[in-house]
């Protein structure tokens, strides 16, 4: 993991990032090595990492909510943006672990050509209201 030393702890971080490759283009197979990062993904990681560092974000420790606003002009499926962005946030120490995401909210925007990323920390013991219907009663699906 690449995390600059001394990143300050904050409650919330908002950054702008280049649109990531679709999740379908992140990895390639072949060469007897198994899955490996595609050239497109490696280039995005490098460019997006520099863009992230230039904004000098803090670190949101523990559980968090991830909000992504993706430019409609990207023409990607909205949910294909989450994996690369989450991995980048972890790689650069903005979040401790992308498994700490409790909820991800996704939407389109038309203001500019970058992904607006917000990470909002959850205070200790905070619980989010479930988004219904989370679990239909078993008799409803039988």
UniProtKB/TrEMBL annotation:
InterPro entries noted in UniProt: Endonuclease_RusA-like, RusA-like_sf
Pfam family, one: RusA
Protein name per the record: Uncharacterized protein
Organism (species): Methylobacterium oryzae
